[in-house]
Design brief:
It is globular, with a radius of gyration of 19 Å. It has a two-stranded antiparallel ribbon. The chain has one domain (2-283). It contains 13 helices and two strands. Helix 1 (12-28) packs antiparallel against helix 2 (35-45), helix 6 packs across helix 11 and helix 9 (160-172) runs antiparallel to helix 10 (180-190). By secondary structure, it is mainly alpha-helical. Strand 1 (2-5) and strand 2 form a beta hairpin.
Length: 284
């Protein structure tokens, strides 16, 4: 089945592809398993019928849907102007935003290098290695923390120093395959945050980080979209939003009863699969 938009054909298959990309983005953006690793695999089997420049922008901008999920779910907690908050709560919310800004500082010198980093490291070998390395790190850190009691169990207890250190870990995620949520959650656990607090702070950090990345890609691509590109992008973003809501609820429920070792094992297996698949593809 096909639809006609301004003389252009939009097939149901293309809509289904956009939905699939949105599902993968919504799940992998929040779970510490690397959205890039999954996207690079998905793109081998699912090809969008769009120019390479659009696809490059599409990978990043569908994050808008994921970001919106965080804003909707945590709007009250993130809104410093809420009339339902006491003066002390409003002050804590302003402080939270201050810590989010501090955590984003390590990214500032990296932004101009982002394209060069992607050109050099956006390949299956780097992605596979980072998947495996951080998978092993999750297992090591969780084993080390087995008998440790977290020193920070509430968002309001995070210090500016903690925020800066977590921001440094977030900066490591510029290497594809690392996982932004994976790096920041790992850093948070290492410095003593509880799993739930580290995950929640990671969600909040995504708002300026991913919003900034998406806006940069939008401006670079320009505003000359075809109707088909607009529909493809919107379908993927809307899908990413709803799937992100489910993924965030799942992760917050999961970390209250479990550690991150299962994600570590998953990353190791996925990294091995990525390496094996592409090595066989190269040989053929």
């Amino acid at each position: 089945m096909k639809f006609i938009m301004n003389g252009e054909e939009l097939s149901v298959i293309e809509i289904l592809k956009a939905i699939l990309f949105g599902i993968v983005e919504g799940i992998t953006e929040w779970l510490p398993i690397s959205s890039t690793g999954h996207m690079i695999l998905l793109e081998q089997f699912v090809k969008l019928n769009e120019p390479a420049s659009f696809i490059e922008m599409f990978r990043v901008v569908i994050q808008f849907g994921a970001i919106l999920a965080v804003i909707v779910l945590y709007f009250h907690k993130l809104n410093p102007f809420s009339t339902k908050k006491t003066p002390v709560q409003r002050k804590e919310t302003f402080s939270l935003w201050g810590k989010i800004i501090v955590a984003c500082i390590p990214l500032i010198p990296i932004v101009p290098l982002n394209n060069k980093i992607n050109d050099k490291f956006y390949n299956y070998k780097t992605v596979a290695i980072m998947l495996i390395v951080y998978g092993v790190l999750f297992i090591i850190v969780e084993n080390y923390n087995r008998n440790r009691v977290p020193s920070v169990c509430r968002i309001s207890e995070i210090s500016y120093r903690d925020a800066l250190i977590i921001g440094l870990f977030q900066a490591l995620a510029v290497i594809p395959g690392t996982s932004r949520s994976g790096a920041t959650i790992l850093g948070a656990i290492i410095i003593g945050l509880s799993r739930a607090t580290g995950a929640e702070f990671t969600f909040f950090l995504a708002i300026p980080t991913m919003l900034g990345a998406s806006l940069i890609k939008l401006f670079k691509f320009g505003l000359a979209y075809t109707p088909l590109e607009v529909v493809t992008l919107l379908v993927a973003m809307v899908t990413a939003f709803f799937v992100s809501v489910v993924a965030i609820h799942f992760l917050m429920g999961y970390v209250k009863k479990h550690n991150f070792k299962s994600f570590g094992y998953y990353r190791i297996v996925l990294g091995a699969v990525v390496l094996a698949y592409f090595m066989m593809a190269v040989q053929h």
